[in-house]
Amino acid sequence: MSVTAGAPERVDGHPPTGPDPRRRGLAERLLAVRELSLLLALAALVLVTTLRNERFLSGQSVKDLLLGCAILVILAVGQTLVIVTRNVDLSVGSILGLVAFATGSLFLAAPGTPWPVALLLGVALGALCGVVNGGLIAVAKVPALVITLGTLYAFRGVDYYWASGRQINAADMPRSFLRLGNQTVLGVPVLFLVALVVVAVVGYYLRAYRSGRELYAIGSEPAAARLSGIPVGRRVFAVFVANGALAGLAGVLYAARFGTLDAAAGTGLELQVVAAAVVGGVAIFGGSGSAYGAALGAVLLTTIGSSLAVLRIDPFWQQAVVGALILAAIGLDRLLAVRMAARLRGRSAHGA
Amino acid sequence: MSAYRRRLRVGATGLTVAALLLTATACGGTTRENSGNESGGGSQASGAANPDAPIKEGLKIAFLPKQVNNPYFTVSDNGGKTAVTEIKGEFKEVGPSEASASSQVSYINTLSQQGMDVIVTSANDPNAICGALNQAKAAGAKIVTFDSDTKPECRQIFVNQVTAEGIAENQVKLISEQIGGEGEIAILSATANATNQNAWIALMKEELKKPEYSKLKLVTVAYGNDDDQKSFQETQGLLQSYPNLKGIISPTTVGVAAAARYLSGSQYKGKVKLTGLGTPNQMREYVKDGTVDAFALWNPADLGYLAAYAGAALASGQITGAEGDKFKAGKLGEFTVGKDGGVVLGPPTVFDKNNIDQFQF
Amino acid sequence: MAHDSLYAAPPVGAEAEPPGAGGERGAGRLAGLRGALGSWDAAVVAALVVATLLASATVQNFATGRNVQFLLLDLVPLALLALPMTLIVITGEIDLSVASTVGLCSTLMGQMWLSSGLSLELICVLVVLLGAVLGAVNGVFVTGFGLPSLAVTIGTLALYRGLSFVVLGDQAVADFPGDWTAAAVRSIPGTSIPVAVVPVLLLALVFGVVLHATPAGRALYAMGNNDQAATFAGVSVARTKFWLFVASGAVCGLVGVFWTLRYASARGDNATGLELTVVTAVLLGGVSIFGGRGGLIGVVAGVLLLGVLRNALQLADVDANALTIVTGALLIASVVLPNAVADVRGRLHRRRQRATPVAR
């Protein structure tokens, strides 16, 4: 299982001097293909469903779809940051639940709180959870899978303990906050706009900023990254904090959307998030993938859920479909990686 | 490895598998038809009842609801706590965080380990906890079910909030009135295995066959698993899949609250009618804003209160669970045990905007 | 997941080594780790003994026959699943789909019982075989297509759980014959030990012997340390891993049968979430997530320790949520501690080295 995806091959002992323009073109082309194919799949799905039931493209239905996918999109984008560095964060569901309940409790205790304050506090709480994760992983040098598995348990336990069986009702939350969950601007739900902004920011960061590119290097070949001077520990720590903050944001939005909160909010979301990222082209072994792809993956998964209901297919198939999609996506990724590696080898062998 | 050895290995594996299969088939075989399904539980109503026996002091009574973070059960268990305090017993509440069948089993085992006198439970699945309950009974505990029953052999008394027929009649009548007597309706239920839900749904289907409801059509039953988000999304799905849907019945407090929340924020508010079994606190806002005209419930606190008294009566020897036994349940008065160990609390209350402010639970 | 992980650098005496010194690094690590292995096993067993004694002394009703019976009965699925999982993690892979495989096998058992008219004995055997097939699917994806086992088993986790709902929907099949369900929970006459513990012990013995006393077992350690070196040493890495996944699947089938009979119901949501507990138990038992180290004794002790803790806390009426926090904390501690200990040891070692003058 020692596959390094997307790493430049060393040829004749010469270190790769810079991004080979042809290779970058090829890589970017492959990337674009993935996102394009996701868009096509999405379009095909919507078409088929609408043919079956034209209500699927009605205003209410589209609004529901956009609202439904907003939270998953934010989580998937955050998870991309983590997966690209060859880690994984399984505790996002628990962080979301914790922050959602915290937000509700805040409003219960101080009903006059303006919602931007609640938003900031929620993000801060999420970032704090991210600090715990990142600290344990980067400082104690322990694999992310295990640590985040442990924090999944731990944060969820704290959440349940805090809630002690209570439930916060939508009736107890301020109207202005709940309206956020449903409001639209020019017909587009506010929640979805927030998600779009997150995708744009993270996508741009990963592409255009040096520290963003360094994340890919860390995921491709950690030893080489370390040797070339990238502060691996610091970057990984920052990535987990960012992911935690995004999960916190998603938690606040969850509270606004659903209103009724109990300690079980967000249970099991981590699987969907990883699925969305993987389907969206983020390679699980790190080093490649984009925020846009992950966002598209999240939208696709949410749409599948709705489509199944509208197509009157047994909703029980949904989870099986998600599983099959994950397997297909990682298979496809591996195929692409192998072919790209072969092509690179072929090229360099011919002295190109 | 050489080809010969590989063939040998494959052959050996194949032979083993075949041998296993053959033995299993040959070994007689308990098939479904000839297994004569008994449950292996003991009889419950044994011994004579002594209605004048005083309620013992210091009885250990434990409540094990379907799930602990459900406000309906919080209220009912608090009602039980009031009762237990009145009879000077020891109250305990435990339960799983999700409504799953197998998780209740380990709690039952723990409770019987701790020497509880009475276990009061609402079952997630009518069969899954029977084994554990029977073992607890063998260790001396009395078993009372409330809200959602198990198989009758596994418990002594079942405290039912309303008769199942009463609920079915009430719910169908409410929705029919609200949608003007004709149209498509759907049911949003809890978990697909919940005994009470399935009993009510079956009776609702029977009720719908009556001539006065001939213009009502039940198109589907959706399951929200007593999970808020899932119920929310199921409501969404129902409205998308059935464009002519006029009404939804949701006989579960989590389901009806989630459905109301969805409807009140959507274009269907007021156009698609919703009724069900909900708590006044959760539904108040939606009754006031016109999403819901009327819904029903009983007082869950009374339910828990009655269940606790029933358990205490059992443990003190006042009743044995046989039909015709009578016992007194504190401020609620006297109750008689009916068929199969069932005790009914009373008729449901209908809440609408005229009376909803009088209730706080 | 094996050694290409981000933090493959061993904390013991880690000076910057040129890449390619993998072989030496591996051997040094192996020797150092084998020392660590012994002490971790001992630590877990000691913790188990301490926990049991404490619980018996302070928690009422803990040290009774009936409680031991419940404790052991609850532990049977966990113990069974932890055995092949140990071997898989030692080779540097992971199998997160075990709980979903159990669920799917359980529902298949229910469906076959309901509608196929086959005898229950035959159904049980078929379910175990089906479990093996499900494990083989994992094996093919991991070894045949070369995909990372983490991702594959997350995919099959979702796929199998989804399929188990497709098979039975939300219904449950619960009319299994009473004497079978009673047999699943019966104890050995005269003792409080459930009969179900016997197959667990047998399997543990088999796995233990294979792991610790056969060349095949040593090959597993070799694979966990360095895939390529193991291949050069003549180990057939792909085939071994494939059969490990098959074995895991077969054991899942067995657990599915037991679970269904024990709770007398086949449902789509049986055993949900169990995989996390299994991984926790395995890691607690000293098996390194990187692969290449750990032993069965530690894992068995880890399983028992987890069981004792949960049982004792539940009896003492500690909130179920506190249990969740404790499990999470244990998991984190079980991975942070070895690194911390080795780090400290390494630092002491270096200090000692600097202190003693070296003749030049």
Overview of this structure, please?
The complex is a heterotrimer of chains A (352), B (361) and C (360). Chain A is an all-alpha fold. Chain A is 72% helix and 1% strand. Chain A starts with 20 loop residues before the first helix and ends with a helix. With 361 residues, chain B is of the alpha/beta class. Chain B has a 6-stranded parallel sheet with strand order 2-1-3-4-5-13, sandwiched between helices. The model of chain B is unreliable at 36-45 (pLDDT under 50). Chain C is mostly helical and 360 residues long. In chain C, 73% of the residues lie in helices and 1% in strands. Chain C contains 13 helices and 2 strands. Chain C has helices at 22-58, 65-90, 98-115, 120-144, 149-168, 178-185, 197-213, 215-225, 227-232, 237-263, 274-284, 296-315, 320-355, and strands spanning 172-173, 266-267. In chain C, strands 1-2 form a two-stranded antiparallel ribbon. In chain C, helix 11 packs across helix 12. The two termini of chain C are 42 Å apart. The chains are: A mainly alpha (352), B alpha/beta (361), C mainly alpha (360). The interface between A and C is large, with 56 and 65 residues.
Topology:
The complex is a heterotrimer of chains A (352), B (361) and C (360).
Chain A: H1 21-52, H2 59-84, H3 92-109, H4 115-140, H5 144-163, H6 175-180, E1 184-185, E2 188-189, H7 190-208, H8 210-220, H9 222-227, H10 232-258, H11 269-279, H12 291-310, H13 317-349
Antiparallel strand pairs in A: 1-2
Helix pairs in contact in A: 1-12, 2-7, 2-10, 2-11, 2-12, 3-4, 3-5, 3-10, 4-5, 4-10, 7-8, 11-12, 11-13
Chain B: H1 3-26, E1 60-64, H2 71-86, E2 90-93, H3 101-113, E3 118-121, H4 130-138, E4 142-146, E5 157-160, H5 164-178, E6 183-189, H6 195-208, E7 216-223, H7 228-241, E8 245-250, H8 253-264, E9 273-276, H9 280-288, E10 294-297, H10 300-315, E11 326-328, E12 334-336, E13 342-344, E14 349-352
Parallel strand pairs in B: 1-2, 1-3, 3-4, 4-5, 5-13, 6-7, 6-8, 8-9
Antiparallel strand pairs in B: 10-14, 11-12
Chain C: H1 22-58, H2 65-90, H3 98-115, H4 120-144, H5 149-168, E1 172-173, H6 178-185, H7 197-213, H8 215-225, H9 227-232, H10 237-263, E2 266-267, H11 274-284, H12 296-315, H13 320-355
Antiparallel strand pairs in C: 1-2
